[in-house]
Fold PABS domain-containing protein.
Amino acid sequence: MLAWLLFPFLNFISFTFAQDEYILKPISETWIDDKSCTTVALVFSPLQNTTFAVVQESLQNNITSRALYVESNPSVRLCAAAVNYRDEILQNALLSEYSVIMIMAPKVLGTVKSFKKLPKNFEILDIGLGCGTFRTFWRSKFTSVSITSIEFDPAIAYIAKTWYGAVESNNSKIIVADGVEFVKTNTKKYDAIFLDACTNSPDSDLICPDPSFLKDDVISQFRDSLKPVGCIVMNCFSLKSVGKDILIQRVKTTFERFFKFCFLLKVKNSDFNKVLACTNGPLPLEGIKNQYVIDYFKTVPPYTLIVESANTTTI
Ligand SMILES: *[C@@H]1O[C@H](CO)[C@@H](O)[C@H](O)[C@H]1NC(C)=O
Ligand SMILES: *[C@@H]1O[C@H](CO)[C@@H](O)[C@H](O)[C@H]1NC(C)=O
Ligand SMILES: *[C@@H]1O[C@H](CO)[C@@H](O)[C@H](O)[C@H]1NC(C)=O
Ligand SMILES: *[C@@H]1O[C@H](CO)[C@@H](O)[C@H](O)[C@H]1NC(C)=O
């Protein structure tokens, strides 16, 4: 009798625990008023005290963009994935140029000699899961790659798994943890670290990376978490109309105190993003210059962005 009474009670406890991490809201409460967009889900995050919206918009050729927005900073599209007419995520498609550049950066810096011949034990640390863009892409293209994603908000982890097809496997986990704390205690060595962790505070001058990642002890730990030819690649994003280049340049200068080579890679289609890539390994060519890296980057195997051509990105 007692067990029978306890059982539903325990169930209720675990149910409310899970619900504490994310709360589904009726889509009628959406703040997205663009008529061409459909709100698919609204998820409240108690951790960040704000609501995330999964929003779909038809692109072309039966391709739909499934984007993620946050109520606390509504002008920013956090991330997006391409979806086909069967409602399936196109795993090897990338919707934003900055994510293409981030994925190409390890090749530019010489960490990856050839995407066709990635070492079997290639290991990636992916901080800031978002829509799961990086892990989904890497896993779809390179099955041998092991990728560990760190996401600090359980609501985002839930969103990525539910609407963006982010799946886990033995060698690619999604860990809900604070990226800064994870890195500080990490003892493993990675080939590449992708940092796309942003603040959702509209008052912050620098939105990505979240300023908590720019402290000396965190950056030195990033350096120590890389294999000898490893690299760290991050999304730098600011909405400040005046001074954003200086802010982003300052991120580069800060990382240069810990890394021999840092490059800011331009994102052609965005005034707000730049990709910073740093390594302590040897560069692929002698005496490489920042501009040269950008030119070299243009020569790496062609990719097409789905927004521009409605076909998938290839590298
Ligand atoms: C959560 O955000 C709302 C506004 O969106 C605010 O009124 C409320 O005070 C906030 N709660 C906490 C605990 O910060
Ligand atoms: C577009 O979607 C419809 C179903 O909505 C499907 O019948 C058709 O084959 C699709 N066309 C292409 C080119 O994928
Ligand atoms: C994953 O790991 C578990 C336990 O270590 C093992 O039983 C399982 O076979 C593994 N799965 C794959 C696909 O390797
Ligand atoms: C992708 O788009 C490009 C440019 O529009 C085109 O040249 C190419 O043939 C397309 N590839 C496929 C597989 O559809």
Observations:
- Residues 1-17, 286-293, 299-315 have pLDDT under 50 and may be disordered.
